[in-house]
Design a protein that fits this description.
The chain contains 3 helices and 2 strands. The termini are far apart. With 104 residues, it is mainly alpha-helical.
């Protein structure tokens, strides 16, 4: 029995997903955006801003949160791309210079 191989269907994921591409982390980020939207709407309503500015402040944080975690056609999402860019910038890079050449 040890060493037997099993075929696993492709559509099985390792994490819980509400819909394909949307799991708990994406849902929590969207809920945080909704909470930020609710806070901005409450504060702007107390200040007495016009209704269209209140609506804009209500939709902006939620829209940004959804765009951050929306699955892209190439795979992943914008948030993962930002994390990969941050890791790339933090990684050491090797620049090879040939001091004997005069190409400059």
């Amino acid at each position: 029995m040890v060493g037997e191989r099993y075929l696993i269907p492709r559509r099985i994921t390792q994490r819980w997903e509400l819909v394909p591409g949307w799991g708990k982390p994406e849902l929590l980020i969207c809920l945080a955006g909704a909470g930020g939207s609710a806070g901005l709407v409450g504060i702007s309503s107390l200040i007495g801003l016009p209704v269209y500015i209140v609506a804009l402040l209500g939709l902006l944080p939620l829209g940004v949160a959804v765009l951050l975690v929306m699955p892209q056609p190439a795979g992943g999402n914008f948030f993962d791309m930002l994390l990969a860019q941050r890791a790339y910038r933090a990684a050491r890079k090797l620049y090879l210079f040939d001091f004997g050449r005069d190409d400059a």
